[in-house]
UniProtKB/TrEMBL annotation:
Protein name per UniProt: Peptide deformylase
Gene Ontology biological-process annotations: translation
Cofactor: binding comment: Binds 1 Fe(2+) ion.
Entry function: Removes the formyl group from the N-terminal Met of newly synthesized proteins. Requires at least a dipeptide for an efficient rate of reaction. N-terminal L-methionine is a prerequisite for activity but the enzyme has broad specificity at other positions.
Native species: Xylocopilactobacillus apicola
Catalytic residue list: E155
PANTHER family, A to Z: PEPTIDE DEFORMYLASE, PEPTIDE DEFORMYLASE 2
Amino acid sequence: MILMKDIIREGTPTLRATAKKVTFPASQEEQNLGLEMMEFLENSQDEKIAEKYHLRAGVGLAAPQVNVSKRMAAVLVPDNQGNIVFKEILYNPRILRESVKRAALNEGEGCLSVDRDVAGLVVRTDRITLEFFDADGTRHEVKLRDYPAIVVQHEIDHLNGTLFYDHIDSKSPFKIPENTVIIE
Ligand SMILES: CNC(=O)c1cccc(C)c1Nc1nc(N2CCN(c3ccccc3Cl)CC2)nc(N2CSC[C@H]2C(=O)NC)n1
Ligand code: NI
């Protein structure tokens, strides 16, 4: 199982590299990694398991974060009632369309690879059309908005070596640009 010791932190080169596309069908190793990343998210969201293994909770994890520079990520997004609203292992995810409307988490963003609080709004696109492939190479296209859309954008950033605080306006980190919805 993936533990916090397996997650690389700032300063490790892979975190700033551009990850390579996966070819299909994904190898057994790539399929296992996808499942292990999803298992990590499930474990991290389970109070007892997270406490037992000292896991930080997350709703997304990208392969570069476990030092594998491949374009794959797991996302497991619950709503405030704990019902899963988006659960996927994404291979070669790509944003096809972006709304004009922007969105940001009211509390800012955290990252399992960043061991510090970096305050400030991370302004992203509110609604996206996402293309991704599954392990068999089957193409999927889904529309996402608000929290799930933010999580997917955060994880795709990891595939391009971008970290959430790269988006924070250091001069006025809490300025809310127009046409931006704040997500509680
Ligand atoms: C600096 N302020 C903050 O971090 C921050 C502070 C407050 C609120 C939010 C909303 C913040 N922001 C933020 N909170 C999260 N979690 C909330 C708690 N949750 C969780 C926790 C326990 C059980 C189950 C679950 Cl589900 C896990 C996920 N996750 C992300 N991100 C940014 S997009 C990728 C995603 C990620 O997985 N990061 C590790 N941001
Ligand atoms: Ni992250």
